[in-house]
């Protein structure tokens, strides 16, 4: 099938590359001519394991291309995906749908008579109705069908998630559109990936509900972690104890500095705003967002507590700035409020991240950027692990003990055994674990 993907950002690029790998003919359209030129030169605008190789293979085989000319790509397409950004709108937290509606207007002017338009972007309930209205307004003659097909991709594992999904949600009441979407996803259907067909509004709400529920699990276990510290319990064992209940499950029960990234914060806020607009508030999700915001700020106090509450004149090494490993995404990353708070407390901050350094330079000021973990830790009074990159799981503790000014490790991801760290002479501070004595 001929597919036009409007937007070559995270969702559009990954989806377009995977669809082309299924054998479809895909053109990814982006208004940013510089990004299109870079993609045509094989340069990826995001860090996602396996993506560069996937793109190169399908470009080389003639199934995937990139362009800025929306008209020619859409006019030949059987299916047009809208995969543009929907960030939180400044000031009120609603999803900013201006890019979605602008794409709909452009599509409407050149859409083939019987093409199917699919919203892949994460959008509030009812957005598909407005997209359909805009397209019909621009092109009354078109027999348009607008489908909701939300994505459920994890950054760092997006290609596997796309090719081996837990489910595919397709929202449409149009039999022709349903048939077209079945053909688009036919390779996955043959692999027995479950496809859930539902109405458009239900599909739109499913995306927000899923992300908000996962965010709720994270906020819940983080509050249990705080309680565990107070009573001398171990949150990791608590998480195992409840996670073995198959009604609960073990995923998203890892205590840490709070959730971030491009999905959970903005999607939870958009769901809150939808509830408020419809006089049906989602109080649990409101609390989740409040708890998460407070937690990110509290992590700096955890570092300060290792020094009796005083960080003035201290040098702090921060390992990891992206919101999770295997991505360079820093949107709403816990490292941002943490580092800001450390600086406000008078600390000098040094930073290292395996792939997030260039992004970090656009976010932080008065921070020393280092070329590796050991250069970052040298001369510092504390080492703070913020992102659980694989290479941070096996640091040479003996070497660290010889190059740091003070033997303090604050492990916000609980990737180390407290006993092992303490055997090497360190004060260890984890999350939801029995406390060490202040240094």
Largest sheet: 6 strands, parallel
- Strand elements, count: 14
Please identify the oligomeric state.
single chain
The outline comes out as: elongated
CATH first level of the largest domain: which class?
A: Alpha Beta
Structural class: alpha/beta
Query: Are there runs of 5+ residues with pLDDT below 50, and where?
Result: none
Overview of this protein structure:
The N and C termini lie far apart (64 Å). α1 packs across α3 and α13 (283-305) packs across α14 (335-344). The protein is built from 18 helices and 14 strands. It is elongated and about 75 Å long. The protein folds into 2 domains: 2-198, NAD(P)-binding Rossmann-like Domain (Rossmann fold, 3-Layer(aba) Sandwich), CATH 3.40.50; 206-439, Rossmann fold, CATH 3.40.50.720. The protein is α/β, with parallel strands linked by helices and 439 residues long. The strands form 3 sheets. It has a 6-stranded parallel beta sheet, with helices on both faces. A 6-stranded parallel beta sheet has the order 11-10-9-12-13-14.
